[in-house]
Specification:
about 70 residues, mainly alpha
Length: about 70
């Protein structure tokens, strides 16, 4: 399994987009309240950002992650 490594530029990109950070925090909250899934263990920021760019709701993404894991 190939591990994805974040470059410093990619990490800064995600830090300076507060909309994405809010999206991610909302998913974390949903997962911790409804299941025992830790978001960082199952989803990388770059994969999560793809859902954010597509306009998916945080509730939908959280439900999808909870069902898959």
């Amino acid at each position: 399994m190939k591990l994805l490594h974040k470059t410093p530029a990619a990490a800064l990109y995600y830090l300076f987009h507060p909309g994405f950070q809010t999206f991610k925090e909302r998913i974390k909250d949903e997962l911790t309240s409804k299941s025992s899934v830790n978001l960082e263990d199952v989803m990388d920021d770059s994969n999560l950002y793809a859902y954010y760019q597509q306009g998916e709701s945080a509730d939908y993404v959280a439900a999808y992650i909870a069902a898959c894991c």
